[in-house]
């Protein structure tokens, strides 16, 4: 069962956000009303604004037999078209005042009434039934829909609760987006499954997070970009340091948290941030435990019930637990996804004999904890905790009338971890033909990618070049694309 507290609501606040709060009693009523409208629909799109509306909409859909498809409300036209075509939702849940673009506006709306009362949650679907489709980027092509079963959610949230000693007494706060597994599964379903409380802080700001922690939140979930900002603030402002220091658990994930940031926060607050490691396809695989952080900079041991192998290029185990021998992380366990929607080819590429190949490279410490060392594909960029494929950004750039050639790379960035960099050859004055083209500015290209894909996929740096370096086959040699010395 995904939500035991909704069958017998405790007398406690479940959700707080946007100036409102909902008790478990109210949540059970409003989510059950959504479930009644969602029942019998195969997939329901969720216009996932960071709001209680989204939380209740998702919980309601999960109480029904429908599958939830969370969508970034800032998604661009091209990505949205793909997501709607690929997942074929038959209804949408969106805040009443949302300005919905064409392909979702045409769908029937399911209303969320935060004040609805009376209805009882229906019996939950079986554990193997699908629960979610989340979209995640690959190196090339449009994002793939990851179909997650309910079993992955229940087993994974159970494992995290055990290693973090996470209970109904915990009050979680975060400001994560609600269209990825981090913010939605860990950050919303996690506390609700336990009968605890989520205080969603809206869009991320140090003040909002520090305010929630000072006001009684016991746990914080964030991506390294957020901890970078919190570290700087905690060093300068004793109230921020005190707020962080008072938390029971500070957890980072979705991208590597540099040891430098862990040390800065520990020095300023007395708290050590712990890490957990996951992917959309597996939810979480490893986590440092509450109260026994283990090796600094590691992501902790495998979660209970999850098998983590390190393998070589031939798929042979190379596990040495020596902190040195590197292998690709392969995962097996109840946390695995079902398949990529409509992409049996892509599923076959990464799932073999029940094992999922993550593409991440890691070593194992003598105490069993895993240290993530890098990634196989240089064409996948993790920026601010969002995964972005170089290929999708290149394709979007090439759709700009003034772009003749484009290559995209990731460069280290203190704040974002990696920054998306676009290398662009502009069309000749006459556009190579009769039409004249105006040379674009970096901002034009940023806005162009933001509007086609999503703002987080926009290049943060654009470098105009006369030509791209290519090998004899005509393939771009990305290793030859390096920042000029005087560039940050
Ligand atoms: C900026 N904006 C634009 C724009 N430029 N809008 C339109 N066009 C443009 N050209 C808007 C943005 O939408 C945003 O609005 C605001 O301006 C600031 O945008 P930004 O500069 O992109 O924000 P930034 O500071 O870079 O964001 C940092 C961040 C964010 C940490 C808040 O990166 C973030 O939320 N990261 C979380 C990623 C995450 O949840 N990953 C989990 C994946 S699951 P607005 O309104 O939004 O402020 C996974 C598995 C696992 O990885 O292990 O967890
Ligand atoms: P996504 O496809 O957005 O779910 O991103 C999954 C990827 O995020 C993983 O394959 C890792 O590369 C990265 N990741 C998640 N958590 C961590 C972590 N704690 N440390 C390093 N990388 C991480």
Q: Terminal Cα separation, in Å?
A: 51 Å
What's the Cα radius of gyration?
A: 23 Å
Strand content: 25-35%
> What low-confidence regions span 5 or more consecutive residues with pLDDT below 50?
none
Mean pLDDT: 96
Helix content: 25-40%
Spatially, the strands of the biggest sheet line up as: 2-1-9-8-10-11-12-13
The biggest beta sheet reads: 8 strands, mixed
Structural class of the helices, strands and pairings?
alpha/beta
Q: Which of globular, elongated, flat, extended, rod-shaped describes the shape?
A: globular
Q: Helix count, per DSSP?
A: 14
- What is the total tally of β strands? 24
Bound heterogens, unique: malonyl-coenzyme A, adenosine monophosphate
Describe the structure in your own words:
This protein has helices at residues 4-7, 24-38, 52-63, 77-87, 102-105, 150-164, 181-194, 206-214, 224-236, 238-245, 259-269, 344-350, 390-398, 442-452; strands at 13-17, 20-23, 43-47, 67-71, 91-93, 130-136, 144-149, 171-174, 197-200, 219-222, 249-252, 274-279, 283-287, 307-311, 327-332, 339-340, 351-352, 355-364, 370-375, 380-383, 386-389, 403-413, 417-426, 461-464. By secondary structure, it is of the alpha/beta class. It is globular, with a radius of gyration of 23 Å. The longest helix is centred in the N-terminal third of the chain and has 15 residues, at 24-38. Strand 1 and strand 2 form a beta hairpin. It contains 14 helices and 24 strands. It has an 8-stranded mixed β-sheet with strand order 2-1-9-8-10-11-12-13, sandwiched between helices. It starts with a helix and ends in a 24-residue tail after the last strand. The chain binds malonyl-coenzyme A (MLC) and adenosine monophosphate.
